């Protein structure tokens, strides 16, 4: 018995001696974890946080041209922006271009995702069509701008040649001197480049819905369209919110196609917020203060609109749930 007691006391003391070593090893593991995540935070602070806060600082100064010293001017830059007709026009242009390209984009994306996931249609080569629809998103914006600039060029562009050859018009039409035509072309390019990605996101959301719900609906005699409107659409609200918010953010940051295609013309008809910011900062008088103030306004607009979209759709879904329970 005595030996057993001695053995247990020895093992107990041995375990107690090993505990500090184990704790030390765990602490070393924790240190390595901090080492591995440190690069992300360093890059974030250097390339995201610092530029953002420095831009906010510049928006309250008078730094412009080649000056190296900035003086605090309060909210004068924001007041000047409010009175700037070009900036207000850039805001309206941005929303017009986004609305014209997003509405058909979301409708077509839902329609394609419905076709691709329908069991009754059972379409073949869905993967091929999905890749083809996504292909325009891979092409660089500069290449797309060059292609469409050549297609709609005056007077011997392919579009003009086709319209005159079919008798639609008698003389060549200058597309990029027409405000309506230029806006429609830019909106179509944005729609053409992004509807494939939207389709893939929506299709992934539909595939994630439990198939038992659709099987039960078929047993009850529901058609594919009824299943889509009564089951798929309500359950797709989180994905729809994601698509809407990301598209809104991308629309507010629209820059490459309008700038590369026409530089914002004609008559600033496709001048967007980002093209305004770019021109203020890097052309002419290099008004860094005005550019920084416009960037802050864009940041606030993005945050507020995203929050409003999220809140409104979330409140509607909660009200519908309450009505069904009632």
TrEMBL record:
Residues 1-22 are annotated as: Disordered. It is found in: Cell membrane. Residues 91-309 form the ABC transmembrane type-1 domain. It comes from the Bacteria. Residues 7-18 have a biased composition (Basic and acidic residues). Keywords: Cell membrane, Membrane, Transmembrane, Transmembrane helix, Transport. The chain crosses the membrane at residues 32-53, 95-116, 128-155, 239-261, 292-313. Gene3D superfamilies: MetI-like. Pfam families: BPD_transp_1. This is Sugar ABC transporter permease. It comes from Alkalibacterium iburiense.
């Amino acid at each position: 018995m005595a030996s057993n007691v001695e053995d247990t006391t020895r093992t107990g003391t041995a375990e107690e001696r090993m505990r500090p070593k184990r704790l030390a090893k765990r602490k070393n593991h924790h240190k390595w974890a901090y080492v591995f995540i440190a690069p992300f935070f360093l890059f974030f602070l250097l390339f995201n946080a610092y530029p953002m806060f420095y831009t906010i600082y510049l928006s309250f100064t008078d730094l412009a041209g080649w000056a190296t010293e900035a003086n605090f001017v309060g909210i004068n830059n924001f007041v000047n922006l409010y009175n700037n007709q070009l900036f207000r026009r850039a805001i309206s242009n941005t929303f017009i271009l986004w609305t014209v390209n997003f509405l058909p984009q979301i409708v077509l994306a839902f329609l394609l995702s419905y076709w691709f996931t329908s069991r009754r249609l059972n379409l073949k080569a869905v993967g091929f069509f999905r890749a083809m629809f996504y292909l325009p998103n891979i092409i660089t914006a500069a290449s797309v701008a060059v292609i469409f600039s050549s297609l709609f060029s005056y007077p011997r562009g392919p579009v003009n040649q086709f319209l005159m050859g079919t008798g639609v018009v008698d003389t060549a039409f200058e597309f990029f001197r027409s405000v309506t035509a230029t806006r429609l072309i830019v909106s179509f390019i944005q729609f053409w480049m992004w509807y494939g990605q939207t389709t893939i996101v929506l299709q992934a959301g539909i595939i994630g819905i439990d198939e038992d719900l659709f099987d039960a609906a078929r047993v009850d005699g529901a058609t594919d369209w009824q299943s889509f409107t009564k089951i798929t659409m309500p359950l797709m609200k989180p994905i729809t919110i994601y698509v809407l918010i990301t598209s809104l953010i991308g629309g507010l940051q629209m820059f490459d196609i309008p700038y590369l295609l026409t530089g914002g013309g004609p008559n600033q008809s496709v001048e967007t917020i980002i093209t305004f910011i770019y021109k203020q900062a890097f052309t002419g008088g290099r008004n860094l203060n005005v550019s920084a103030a416009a960037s802050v306004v864009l940041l606030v607009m993005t945050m507020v609109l995203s929050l409003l979209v999220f809140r409104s759709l979330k409140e509607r879904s909660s009200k519908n749930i309450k009505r069904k329970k009632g």
